[in-house]
Amino acid sequence: MAVEFVAREPVGRRPDRARRPAAGPDPVVAGRRADRGPRPPVGRPADGPGHRLPGPVGSGYFSTSITGLTQPTYSAYAASKGAVEQITRVLAKELGPRQITVNCVTPGPTDTELFGEGKTEEQKQAFGRMAALGRLGRPADIADALAMLCGPDAGWASGQAIRVNGGLI
Q: How far apart are CA 60 and CA 39, in angstroms?
């Protein structure tokens, strides 16, 4: 399970960002924004305590998978991921008054080294065919969804399990 929290900066406080073309949210990579170093802690805006932001102060997300699949031998794993979806809803309620959104991303089979361990190429292709889009996910597919959730355009989304699985479930 991956857990990530993001604190947003006050709108209008960074003139250099205001002049950049609107190309969508900054990419989120391994707990860092690609254009800057580590993010400030959740709930502590860059301008210091007491500064009220016009949108959510931050966002948090959890990552789960296969909660919707009914595969033999996956019962304990699926149960633990179901618990993550529930804690996402609870944390969204608890942190909402502080303008912090919390969501859960549930990726489908994604073509990573870990996913490929112990699987033949035929087995991996079979997983890809299970998805409506007919392929395995790519790490960039998941990163794009996370970047959207951590960006300003997702400010009203909270307590949600977002399925990024190519139509698998």
A: 13
